[in-house]
Amino acid sequence: MTDDSATIIDPAERLFREVSPIQRVHHLLHRYPAISPAVVLVLAGLVLGAVNTRFFLPANLSLVIQQVAVVGGLAVGQTLIILTAGIDLSVGAIMIFSAIVMAASATTYGLPGPLALLVGLLVGTIAGGINGVLVTRLRLPPFIVTLGTLNIFTALTLLYSGGQSIQKGIPDVLLWTGTAVAVGPFKLTTGVILMVLMYVVATWVLRNTAWGKHLYAVGDDPEAARLAGIAVNRILLSAYLVAGFIFALTAWILIGRIGAASPNAAADANLDSITAVVIGGTSLFGGRGLIFGSLLGALIVGVFRNGLALAGVDVLYQTLVVGVLVIVAVAIDQWIRRVRA
Amino acid sequence: MTAGPERRPIIEARGLIKTFGRVVGLDGADFELYPGEVLAVIGDNGAGKSTLVKCLSGAMTADAGEIMVDGQPVAFRRPQDARAAGIETVYQSLAVVPALDIASNMFLGREIRRSGVLGSVFRMLDHGQMRRKAKKQLQDLGIGTLQSITQAVETLSGGQRQAVAVARAAAFGSKVIILDEPTAALGVRETGQVLKLIRDLRDRGLPVILISHNMPNVFEVADRIHIQRLGKRVAVVSPATHTPSEAVAIMTGALDVEPVGAVH
Q1: What is the CATH number that goes with domain B1-86+173-264?
Q2: Does A26 contact B at CB distance below 8 Å?
Q3: Complex ipTM
Q4: How far apart (Å, rounded) are the C-alpha atoms in residues B175 and B208?
Q5: Is B97 within 8 Å of A224 when comparing Cβ atoms?
Q6: Which residues, listed in sequence order, are joined to residue B234 by a DSSP beta bridge?
Q7: Taking a contact as any Cβ pair under 8 Å apart, which residues of chain A between 156 and 215 contact chain B?
Q8: How many angstroms separate the CA atoms of A93 and A123, rounded?
Q9: Considering A49, A124, B125, B214, which has the largest number of Cβ atoms within 10 A of its Cβ?
Q10: Within 10 Å of residue B79's Cβ, how many Cβ atoms?
Q11: What are A150-188's pLDDT values in tens digits?
Q12: Which residue of A5, A27, A228 is in closest CB contact with B185?
C-alpha cells in the first residue's frame, strides 16, 4: 500500500491546478483500466493486418479465437484469484486433472457422459477448494500453495493416466464443445461461445453482486474489508472454489478442442493465463482490474502470435514480443496506480 | 453539562481489564457516555485509550469487566456485534477501500439488493438506490465538495476520505459514533471541517466518542474529557472548568486527582 496521507491537497486548490493532457490520460486509464489493452489490440490488428492482408480473413480470425479459447477460459478464473491479490500457478494442472478425470469416468468407469462431466466439474472445484483452504487456513502465500499444488495435480494426473492420452470412447457430451458454429463468416465452436459466456457471467457477477464488490475489497485492502464486516477468508475460499469450477469448465473446452484428454496438453497454460490477465490490465497487487480485460489480453497474445507467424517471423520472436508486452503492461499498471487527487 | 445525576449513560463500562501477555492494556477502567454529548478520551501513549475504545467497538474483547448499552449488559466479540447495537466506529486507518467508489465504500458489507426476483435469486445490487442514499447522506452532513459519488476513494484528499468514513458511520450508527484520531493526518482547514462534522453529529442527537492527541481540538469540541492513565480512568474534566495544561498534567501524573465519583 502506498500511503499519501502526508500529502493532502486542498479541494479548492485543485480547481486552480493545471491538468496536463498526460494527467488526463492517466485519470482516464485509472478509471477504465481496460482501455490500454483495447488500444493495443486494435493497433496490433491494424499493423499486422497491413503487413499481411490474410490476417483479416474471417477464416484466420476464427482460428485465432479458437486458439485462445482455452487460455481465455482459464484467465477468467485466474482473474478472480489475482483480484484477491493472489496468484494461481496450478490452473493448467487443475484443468488437465479435471479433463483426465472427466474422460476416464466415462471410458474406464462407464459413467454416462453428463455424469462424467459433473464428476469432472466437481473434481476441479474441489481442487480449487484445496488451494483456498491452504491459503485461508494455513495462511500460506498463494504463490507457494499453488506452486505446490501445481506439482501435486500434475503428478496425480500422470499417475492416474499412466501418461497416456484418452482418445477412444469419449462420450459426445464431452466432445460437444468442439462443435462448429457459424457466426456470419466466422467459424467458431460451441467451446468458444462457452468461453465468451463465462466472461459475460463473470463480468455481471463482479459488477452487480455484493460478492463481486467484496472480492475487490478483499484484494485491495483486506484490513479495511474486515473492519467493514466482510468475512475475508470466506470470500477468499469462495474465489478459489469458483476458480476451480471455471478451470474444470475450461477442461471441457479443451477436450472438445483436441478431441481427447491428454496429460501433456496445454503445458504452457499456467503462465499463459497469467500473461493474459496482466496484459488485460488487472493489477497483480489485487483489487483493480476488469475481467473483460483478460479476454482482451488473451486475444492480444493470440493476435501477436498469429500475425507474426503470418508475417513470417520466427516463432521465438513471437515469444519475445509477448515477454515485452507483459513488462510494458505491468509498467503501465504501476503508473496507473500512482494516480491521486 | 446540565445533565442531572439521574440521566442514564448510553454506554457504560465497569472495571474493564485487558492484558496482552505481561503488558497491561486496561487495569480496571470505567467509562460512561451520556446522551447528546461529545466525550473526548485522552491519555498518553500506552494509557489504554485505544484498547478501551476497541473493547467498546467490538474489535477486542475485555478479559474482565462489563459493558452496558442502555443499561443492558452486552458482550461484543466482533465489530459486527457492536455495529448491530448501533455503535459505529471510524478507525484511524479509516477502513475505506481505496479502489472502490464512494457509494460502494459507504455500503460495503451492507449492500442494498434489488427488490423482487433480481435481488432474491440473482443477488443483484441496487446501485441506483445506494448512490442516491450515499449522496443524500453526504449532503445532509454538508459535504458537497465531492465531484461524483462514483469516483474512487483513492482520488479523494485526506479530509474528503475522512468525511466519507464519518458519513458512513453516521448513516448506520443509530446510537453512538466513535472517532479514533480523526484529525491526525489532516491539515488545518480539513481539521476544521471534521470538527464541524463532529458538532453537527452531536446536534443531530448522536453522541460522539472522540479519541485524540490534539488538545486544542479536544478543548474545542468536547463537552467532557475522559482522562486515561496507566490503564485506568483517572479523571473526567470539563473544558469549562479545566485548562489544557491541567488536563495534560493529570494525563501525565504530574497532578494528582481524586478518584472519579459522580462527577460529570
Answers
A1: 3.40.50.300
A2: no
A3: 0.83
A4: 9
A5: yes
A6: none
A7: 208-211, 213-214
A8: 12
A9: A124
A10: 23
A11: 999 999 999 999 989 999 889 999 999 999 999 889 999
A12: A5
Q: Which residues of B touch A228 (CB under 8 A)?
A: 95, 97, 108-109
Closest CA to B67 of B13, B106, B109: B13
Domain ranges, residue A154: 31-337
Query: Residue B4: which region, alpha, beta or left (left: phi > 0; alpha: psi -120 to 50)?
Result: beta
Closest Cα in chain A to B60: A227
Q: State residue B262's pLDDT score.
A: 42
DSSP string, A269-307: HHHHHHHHHHHTT--TTSS---HHHHHHHHHHHHHHHHH
Q: Do B99 and A287 touch (CB under 8 A)?
A: yes
pLDDT tens string A43-78: 888 988 898 889 999 999 999 999 999 999 999 999
Look at the alpha carbons of A77, A79, A82, A88 in this order and tell me if their dihedral is positive or negative: positive
Q: Which three cell numbers stand for residue B228?
A: 486515561
Distance CA A205, CA B129 (A): 18
Question: Has residue A26 been placed in a domain?
Answer: no
CATH number of the domain at A241, please.
1.10.3470
Q: Is residue A2 part of a domain?
A: no
pLDDT score of A6: 38
pLDDT of residue B218: 93
Q: Please tell me the distance in Å from B190's CA to the nearest CA on chain A.
A: 8
Domain edges within chain B: 1-86+173-264
Q: How far is B56 from chain A (nearest CA, A)?
A: 14
Determine the Cα–Cα distance for residues B131 and B147; give it in Å rounded to an integer: 13
Distance CA A89, CA A273 (A): 9
Among B100, B124, B185, beta carbon nearest to A208: B124
Residues on chain B touching A211 (C-beta within 8 angstroms): 123
- What type of residue sits at position B19? T
Assigned domain for A24 exists: no
What is this structure's pTM? Answer: 0.87
Domain count, chain A: 1
Q: Does residue A7 lie within any of the structural domains?
A: no
